[in-house]
Amino acid sequence: MHGVSFVLVAVNAALAGCVVLRWRQALAGVGATAVLLAGTLAFGSVRLAEAPPATAAPITIIQPSIEQPLKWEPRHTQETLGIYFALLRRVADEHPALVVWPETAAPTILRNDPALVERFRAAAANVGAPMLLGSIDVVNGRFRNTAFLITEAGIVGRYDKIQLVPFGEFVPLSRVLGFVRSWAQFIAELEAGSRAVVFNGPPAPFGVVICYEGIFPDLFREFVRDGAVLMVNMTNDAWFGRTSGPEQHLAMYPFRAVEHRVSIVRAANTGVSAFITPTGVIVRRLHLFERGVMTESVPLRARRTLFTRLGDWLGLLSLAVTTAAVAGTWRRVEPAAVGSV
Q1: What's the start-to-end Cα distance of the chain, in Å?
Q2: Would you say 83 and 66 are in contact if contact means Cβ atoms under 8 Å apart?
Q3: Order of strands, edge to edge, in the sheet holding 154-160?
Q4: Cα gap 238→134, rounded to integer Å
Q5: Cα separation of 278 and 209, whole Å?
Q6: Which residues contact 100 (CB under 8 A, 6 or more apart)?
Q7: Rg (CA), the chain
Q8: Under 8 Å CB-to-CB from 308, ≥6 apart: which residues?
Q9: DSSP for 128-152?
Q10: What number of CA atoms fall less than 13 Å from residue 32's CA on the CB side?
């Protein structure tokens, strides 16, 4: 993200320099920016021309499209489950290696509902693929936003959401700002998870980011650095309704894909679910409030990028250079200012 911003700022700074600087300085700025832009385009062309990873796996996304007021309505639970298992009947013919559901898809607290666990366990056995299912969970009396991996053996793994949504899943500085709960009944009080979890698969080691966790490059990088060759985003954007919010949320994930050259499978309750290639291309999607199932052969990551290894080195380098430049300017200006006094 900072690399793209760097190029944009450089081009605009060069144009501004043509207006406010002497022509030699402006020409130097334009020349340097032209070299930067040409190098960026050349590098991108080379990367886009590379062959995709040789190894791939079929992944299925289920988008149930349950509107937010109905998700936790007990009178609607059986209807919701009827929709779920009707969609699942369409999955068996796809022969996926993994079935991905959205965030908090379970209409009850999954681990407190053995009958529902059994239904998903049986479904995983019937389909021949594990289910990645989102649910609220209770740990030591505290609620968590969790992704469960369910196989024919039952629940075999879990990841608890680390980066909670302020004023949605918790209240920052709750002792001071706790009064805001009376303003909005939808504010929850969840407990954050403590570590990034890479599931062993099948089909291969993969990580999960829940809801808006994917907008945090450093958190996303933890999963890839720890061995994930595929990334999943499960989300519930039903809160946004039919606004531009779900599309804006989706727009963050091509950047994460490019940073690590990793495929992203995105399952959203009401949309927008999508498959994103390691080059950041959204190859297939289910549109907003479209109920359905889609399966795609997803390339598995085969390399480690510079961003995977070093993180946001460009942002840190830019900060260091800017700090040094400001300090140098201050040292030159300070004696003259003192002398004039």
Answers
A1: 45
A2: yes
A3: 154-160, 142-151, 131-139, 98-100, 56-63, 292-299
A4: 14
A5: 17
A6: 59, 60, 61, 62, 132, 232, 234, 265, 267
A7: 24
A8: 221, 224, 225, 259, 260
A9: TS-EEEEEEEEETTEEEEEEEEEET
A10: 15
d(CA 223, CA 214): 11
Per residue in 157-175, pLDDT (tens digit) is 999 999 998 877 767 756 6
Q: Are 302 and 290 in contact (CB under 8 A)?
A: no
223-268 pLDDT, tens per residue?
A: 999 999 999 999 999 888 899 999 999 999 999 999 999 999 999 9
Between 310 and 174, the more confident residue is 310
Percent of the chain with pLDDT over 90: 72
Q: State phi, psi for 327 to the nearest 5 degrees.
A: -65, -40
Q: Is the pLDDT of residue 301 over 80?
A: yes
Cα 65 versus chain centre, distance = 20
pTM for this predicted structure: 0.88
Active site residues: 103, 161, 211
Residues found in the chain? 341
Nearest in space to 146 (alpha carbons), one of 187, 191, 87, 116: 191
Question: What is the structure's pLDDT at 272?
Answer: 96
| Site of tokens 């003192």 | 338
3 state DSSP class of 59:
strand
Q: How many CB atoms lie within 10 A of CB 241?
A: 13
HSE-CB for 23 with a 13 A CA cutoff: 0
